[in-house]
């Protein structure tokens, strides 16, 4: 098991990519704290993991609230005694539309969840990782940072910030043996899919987007979970500052 004995905090873990990451981490021997703005969903996924023989707890946490972020890190220490991996997966987007139609409130929320949350989590996690001699941070970015689609300008730019944060954190934290990497998924089968498309989720509209992906399909939580498990494992001990495209060739 690649993550045997490691303790991970995964945000946005009540559904989608985050739930997939939490399930695989537990299956690989990790102990997982699932945090989500929807605490009930996080608890339900954690209970499912426990029933399958894994170790997990779920809790409600707003990743834009410093006190909530501190609480989820304390939960890792209080329950499992340490922190090895932080997965900053929580994210939001605006509906596909011209940037001139994106409200200031939407802009602020997107940057708070997609960018500021990484900073807030780092404030709490870095001292814990330093104290034990190192660890790993994984940020969920997007192909939107690399090959932006029209109609998602504010979201695209927030993910560009995630990529720069990832690389800069990797350089700054390398002396502490803290690796920092990002995963860049292509549009995936999650609750945000219709938001990204900007049109109803129909077979015909799916085909339009799938046609832009050389391997011919959307990403899945399983795809992203396998990438995250590799980056969190000792197999990736010499990888830091990577923005890994999990995109079926979309960014070629």
Name the descriptors:
single chain; alpha/beta; Rossmann fold; 7-stranded parallel sheet; 15% strand; globular
Describe the SSE topology:
Blueprint: E1 7-11, H1 16-27, E2 31-36, H2 39-51, E3 55-60, H3 66-80, E4 85-88, H4 104-131, E5 135-140, H5 153-173, E6 178-185, H6 193-197, H7 203-210, H8 221-232, E7 243-246
Parallel strand pairs: 1-2, 1-4, 2-3, 4-5, 5-6, 6-7
Describe what this molecule looks like in 3D.
With 252 residues, the protein is of the alpha/beta class. Helices cover 45% and strands 15% of the residues. The chain has one domain: 3-Layer(aba) Sandwich (Rossmann fold). The chain has helices at residues 16-27, 39-51, 66-80, 104-131, 153-173, 193-197, 203-210, 221-232; strands at residues 7-11, 31-36, 55-60, 85-88, 135-140, 178-185, 243-246. Helix 1 crosses helix 8 (221-232) and helix 3 runs parallel beside helix 4. The longest helix is centred in the middle third of the chain and has 28 residues, at 104-131. The radius of gyration is 17 Å and the shape is globular. The relative contact order is 0.15. The model has no long low-confidence stretch (mean pLDDT 95).
